[in-house]
Amino acid sequence: MEREKNMSKKRKLDSSAQDSLYFESYADVTIHEEMLADTVRTDTYRRGIFRSGEQIQGKAVLDVGAGTGVLSVFCAQAGARKVYAVEASSIAEQAARVVRLNGVADRVEVIRGTVESAELPEKVDLIVSEWMGYALLHESMLNSVIFARDRWLRPGGLILPQRAELFVAPINHLVAEERLSFWSTVKGQYGVDMSCMTDFARSCIMNGEISVQPVSVEDVLSHPCRFATLDLHTVTLEQLKRVSGSFCCRCFGSSSLNAFCVWFAVTFPGEDGTQPLVLSTSPFKPETHWKQAVLYLDEPVDVVQDTRVEGSISMFPSEQSSRHICIHVEYTIGEHKQTSKTFSIPDWGQESQ
Prior knowledge:
Strands 6, 7, 8, 10, 11 and 12 form a six-stranded antiparallel beta sheet that branches. By secondary structure, the protein is of the alpha/beta class. The chain is built from twelve helices and 15 strands.
C-alpha cells in the first residue's frame, strides 16, 4: 500500500516540473507548424490585430507566449512602436530570427523567459496572446495573460482577444458508434466471431478522458448552449480556479446520445461600428487545430424530438497537474435520473501531442 502511495506522489508533478514539460513541448517545430497551418486561427489574429490599428500605432505591446513571433510581427506591421515578445521555451531563438528576417528587429524585442519573471522597461498599451488550449482552458496559459494584465497593462489598455465563451451540445458521435459496431463485422470478414469485444471496446472508448477530435454538424443533436463567458479585462485568477455554468437543450429528433461536445469562441473588438471579429472552434464552423472536446457518456441514451437535456458543467485544474483541465458534468436526459461524470486530459507521460 505504501508503494502505491509513493507512486501516486511521483505521478503528481510539482509546478516547476509541470512548467518545464509544458515549455519543452513548444520547443519542437511540429506544434508551431500545426498552429501556423491553421489558417482560421492565424488569419483571425492577423485581422484582429490590424483592425485595432489605431490602438496599436505608436504604442507598446506585450505578446504573451510569443512562440515563433508571428503575432509580434503582425503588431509591428500594424504600427506598434515597441513589441515585447515574451517566450519561455527555446523557440524564442527562432522567433528572434523571424523578427530579424522581417525587418522589425528595431521594434520587436524577444525576451526569453516566463511573463511572470520578465521585467519590462515600461507599461504596455496592449496585450496580445494566443493562449487558448483544448476546451479553452487546458494548459492554463490564461493565468499568465491575467498576470501580465495586472502587472503590465496600462489603465484603459486593450487585450486581444478580449472575451472568451464556452459552449456545449449533446451529440451522437458517429465515430464511436462505428468503432463499436466494427467488432460485429469481424466474423463476416474473417470467420471469427469477435462480437464479445464490444463491451471491452466501449469501456476503452467511452472512458473518462477528454477526447480531442473533430465533430461533424450531423453529430450535433441540439442547438448549442453557452455556459460560461470570460471577460479578459475583468476575470480574476481566483475565478479561473473553477469555471462553471448550466445548460438546457432540446433535441432535434430521434437519435442515440452518446457524448457531450464542448468548444469555445474568442472575440476581437470591432472598430468604428464594425462587428466584432470571432474566432470559433464550433463544429458548425471551419475546422481548427483545436477541433472539439468530446465527453463520452458511460452508456448511450436514446432521445426523440424535444427530449430535454440539462445540467451543469465545471472546469478546473487537475490535482496531478495544474496545467491540465478536468471537466465535471452533471446531467439529466429526459426522464432518466441525474448522472454525473468527471473527465480529464491524459497526464503528461501519456499525452500524445
